[in-house]
Amino acid sequence: MDLLTQRLDAHGRALELLARRQQVLAANIANADTPGYQARDIDFAATLAQAQGGPNAPGRLVATATRHLQPHGGAPQADLLYRQAEQPALDGNTVDLDRERASFADNALRYEATVRFINSNVRTMLSAITGQ
């Protein structure tokens, strides 16, 4: 059962990171005309790998007594990175609206696919439990 919950927890962390990245991309799109705004993004793969690190991963909480609470809730800390502009605007804005929209749509599809995968796993477990 522990392996099962670990896998679902991993997908839950992925959903949290995808939601956080969606917020960052939406902020980039909203600030496309803001002078001096620097486009930001999250290195999703690196942040997820850090969040799923082993028991000795940096920043990982470790229970040293049986009464300690297990860390839950909240999205893993994602470092925001500034994107290098391919064609910076004269006003210093580095948002490439086409790139941001494409990233936004791709991220939304990844989020939806992860939700569907989790739902499918839960349905399979319920079916196995009820014997149907």
From TrEMBL:
GO terms for biological process: bacterial-type flagellum-dependent swarming motility. The keyword GTP-binding does not apply. Keywords: Bacterial flagellum, Cell projection, Cilium, Flagellum. Residues 8-38 form the Flagellar basal body rod protein N-terminal domain. It is found in: Bacterial flagellum basal body. It comes from the Bacteria. Belongs to the flagella basal body rod proteins family. The basal body constitutes a major portion of the flagellar organelle and consists of a number of rings mounted on a central rod. NCBIfam families: FlgB. This is Flagellar basal body rod protein FlgB. It comes from Ramlibacter aurantiacus.
